[in-house]
Design goal:
283 residues; alpha/beta; 6-stranded mixed beta sheet; 5-stranded mixed beta sheet; 8 helices; binds adenosine-5'-triphosphate; binds magnesium ion
Length: 283
């Protein structure tokens, strides 16, 4: 049995559970308790506040965790980062009132900066040779300057909308973050084996992300041109159609390249193009 800590409620909880679900691990979400056992995989889920996850994994009370890299960096927890999960992207940034002119790191000399991430901030200040006062607050950091609590803030930014609506502007992006899968440093052989099994599934789910299955009818004499447009995993599958001179061509394409490829395929005579959802990709 392996134990994974995930955020109980918040920005990362739904996607963490969705990932497990897509990996074929069903957890009864209706009865979201502190600890929940998966139905068909040797895994249990420990629901925690995100701040607590790195420490709990480092301490061995959970074997794995899914948490923002920002929390791993802040806690300095001694854990292994096993995978970047590709969701929960954000950054830790310094922001100042938008009317002020930003002159570089020395702007912060002698200023008060409000943050929930004092350790990461301290590291940045030290490496830039700046002395500033850190005001630690756990919530509503973005209102600190307007409330007269601080001259600047150091906080999580994703779109930047929260900053703008509080009259602030981002001036330094200090740390890039996304959700990461973390593991305790010394898992025994049995847990390591379960982790490998879990990673095999997670990789298949992540590999399918951003990809589509595409099939189309194509004049047989255009196959070699189509193969140049659609490299696929090894090469596209070509099947003979009952109609003379036509074939059906199947492949996998990146969603970001989908429309460009479709236009090029149409231009060489592809018809009846179908684009399908791709559930898992096992390399
Ligand atoms: P908890 O109650 O678990 O302590 P929280 O309020 O501290 O939750 P959330 O706001 O749910 O945390 O954010 C969890 C994580 O989501 C953050 O640590 C960060 O990694 C990520 N995240 C991504 N985008 C954003 C964003 N725009 N604002 C805040 N966090 C974000
Ligand atoms: Mg938190």
């Amino acid at each position: 049995m392996i134990r994974i800590a995930i955020q109980s409620k918040g920005r990362l909880s739904e996607e963490s559970l969705a990932l497990l679900r897509e990996a074929g691990i069903k957890i009864d979400e209706l009865k979201r308790k502190f600890l929940a056992r998966a139905a068909d995989f040797p895994l249990e889920v420990l629901y925690l506040r995100d701040d607590d996850i790195p420490g709990v994994v480092a301490g061995g009370s959970a074997d794995l965790g899914i948490v923002g890299y920002n929390e791993v960096a802040e806690t300095g927890a001694d854990v292994k980062i096993v995978r970047k999960m590709g969701f929960g992207a954000c950054r830790l940034s310094l922001a100042i009132p938008k009317a002020q002119e930003y002159t570089g790191p020395s702007f912060f000399e002698g200023k008060t900066i409000a943050t929930s991430y004092p350790n990461v901030l301290e590291g940045w200040l030290a490496s830039n040779g700046v002395k500033a006062k850190i005001q630690k607050i756990m919530g509503s950091v973005e209102i600190a300057p307007a409330a007269g609590l601080a001259d600047a803030i150091f906080d999580i930014v994703s779109s930047g909308g929260t900053l703008v609506s509080n009259g602030l502007k981002e001036v330094e992006a200090v740390l890039q973050s996304e959700a990461v899968l973390i593991a305790a440093k010394d898992l025994d052989a049995e847990k390591q084996a379960i982790l490998e099994k879990l990673l095999f599934r997670i990789d298949a789910v992540m590999e399918s992300g951003g990809k589509k299955y595409i099939l189309m009818n194509l004049p047989t004499d255009k196959v070699s041109e189509a193969v140049k447009i659609l490299p696929a995993m090894r090469s596209p599958t070509v099947m003979q159609l009952a109609a003379e001179g036509w074939c059906s061509l199947h492949s996998v394409v990146l969603e970001s390249e989908l429309w460009d490829k479709i236009e090029r395929l149409k231009a060489i005579g592809a018809e009846g193009i179908l684009v399908l959802h791709l559930d898992k990709v096992i390399d």
